[in-house]
Amino acid sequence: MTETITIDGPLKWPEIAAIADGARLALSERARQRIVDARRIVDALVERGVRGYGINTGVGALCDIVISRENQQALSRNIILSHACGVGERLERSEARAVMAAQIANFAHGYSGVRIEIVEALLALLNADLIPHIPSRGSVGYLTHAAAIGLVLIGHGSVDDGKGGVSGAEALSRLGISPLRLEAKEGLSLVNGTPCATGLAALALARAERLFDWADAAAAMSYENLGSQANAFAAGPMSLRHSPGLQTVGAKLRDYLQGSPMLASTAGNRTQDPLSLRAVPHVHGAARDVLAHAGDVVNRELASLTDNPAVSGTPEAPEVHSQAHAVGAALGLGMDALAVAVAEVAAISERRIDRLVNPLVSGLPAFLAGDSGVTSGFMIAQYTAASLAAENRRLAAPASLDGGITSALQEDILTHATPAASKVLVIVDNLKTILAIELLAAAQAYDLQPHAIGRAQRTNALYQRIRAAIPAYADDRPMNADIELMRETVTDERAP
After folding, report:
1. Is Cell division found in the keyword set (predicted)?
2. Which of 46, 190, 222, 345 could form a disulfide with 150 if both were Cys (CB 3.0 to 4.6 A apart)?
3. Is 446 among the catalytic positions?
4. Which of 53, 111, 142, 463 is catalytic?
5. How are beta strands 24-27 and 4-7 bridged, if at all?
6. Residue 160 domain flag
7. Are residues 228 and 333 in the same domain?
8. Is 262 part of a structural domain of the chain?
9. Residues 230 and 375 in one domain
């Protein structure tokens, strides 16, 4: 049975990620009432003629132009149509679902003032898996992504129904919903806030968290293959360095490598191992610490109202507040930090791959080829990993410092939270490929060990899992097919 997540208080990023992967979303009665109450406040603001940004004024640099009551519906509709100017490839279905979930969660705080019908329509689309097509590029913050969702609500745009594309009007018709006529403020609220960045960030966190577990597993296999020292991760010395992530990774490596006959046979051969092996807890652990911090940032974002303006008070004493809550500076900074952390995990993985294929340091056949010279083995797979690690270095440049000026100097600082989250997803995908290559190379290295010495129990389980799906490589097939199979395993399964 599909899991249902109910919004009552603030959601957490793992819940957004679960919704992205197919969980259903519902509102508690308290959340529903908060939305209804906030709309009554907006109606009171309209009735009293209280000036409110995007309610009865233009938007952006047009914020001082007062809009008559009879034109406020037109303003809401026009905002959706004019802001729907995103370009490029569409977001994946899971990414679009994450954005929708974060948007609904933002409205459920009860400070945006959209009608409950808006939120119910969004929920109906999400739970029916009728997912708006959202162009992935063209956002400095949030507007274009969110407008693509708003289009569907008014009967425009298009939707992925899992079988192909259908029009927004057709998607609504399947749900028994007529295209919505937007009221005052609803157009602005539908394109506003940080749900785009928050949804994508939650997905990046979930994917990175899973891959960090696989990175520890791959590192353990490489470490064992390369004749490393048995006690480098001993608990006592490791405890001298204060880092929750480091301690977690150290414990995982000790567990993976416990009782390894291979490591016992090489004990004392070296004073210390190279950093790509010895510093795995320090690098992987630091990345885990960054991930934990980024998760806290995203959870705070999900607990916050990121709409502008916010409404509060009562229908008898309505208030409207033009703050900068839609600015995603914290998200941009958090995702930029995560981008660097994921890129560093990928970089150290590529360095371990290089050691596995280099006969000068591995003691194994060159490039893990059974008949080097006639066969190239993993020579070019390491090139692929090096290429992706280099791409990650380029992508890890901070998006939050890109700056820029929009809307005739009204928006004269931009924090680029959505692009920051988007590029983390690309870096995470590159890490997945690099880890797939390391896992395959490490399995191949086991096959080519010159002495029949047993592996540790847990690394042997990893090896057996890989070999159950992918045989040893002998230049007998295109390697990218093997890499893709390993990527699927890393995507679909947890590291053992």
Report:
1. no
2. 190
3. no
4. 53
5. parallel
6. yes
7. yes
8. yes
9. yes
Domain end marker among 143, 165, 192: 192
Q: What is the 8-class DSSP label of residue 61? A: G
Is 365 among the domain residues?
yes
Range of the domain at 10: 4-192
One domain, residues 256 and 362? yes
Burial of 302 (0-12, 13-18, 19+ CB in 10 A): buried
Number of domains in the chain: 2
Whole-number Å distance between alpha carbons of 299 and 331: 10
One domain, residues 38 and 172: yes
Q: In the Cβ-directed half-sphere of 459, how many Cα atoms lie within 13 Å?
A: 32
- Residue, of 265 and 483, whose pLDDT is higher: 483
Strands of 224-380 (E only): list them: 310-313, 318-321
Q: Is the pLDDT of residue 106 over 70?
A: yes
**Sole residue written with tokens 């600082």:** 413
Secondary structure of 260-291 in the HEC alphabet? Answer: CHHHHHHCCCCCCCCHHHHCHHHHHHHHHHHH
* pTM of this structure: 0.95
CA 273 to chain CA mean position, Å: 34
The pLDDT value given to residue 142: 76
Task: Tell me which residue of 285, 394, 283, 402 sits closest to 332, measured CA to CA.
Answer: 402
Query: Does residue 414 sit in the same domain as residue 333?
Result: yes
- What gap in Å lies between CA 453 and CA 264, rounded to an integer? 10
| Pair of tokens at residue 103 | 């948007």
pLDDT tens-digit series, residues 31-50 = 999 999 999 999 999 888 88
156-177 burial, b if ≥16 CB within 10 A, otherwise e?
Answer: bbbbbeeeeebebbebbeeeeb
CA distances from 238 to 218, 287, 349, 370 (A): 20, 17, 21, 38
DSSP annotation of 163 reads S
Same domain? For 144 and 253 the reply is no
Rg value, the chain, Cα = 26
Asked if the structure places residue 316 within a domain, the reply is no
Q: What is the end-to-end Cα distance of the chain in Å, rounded?
A: 25
Per-residue pLDDT of 224-258, as tens digits, reads 999 888 788 999 999 999 999 999 999 999 999 99
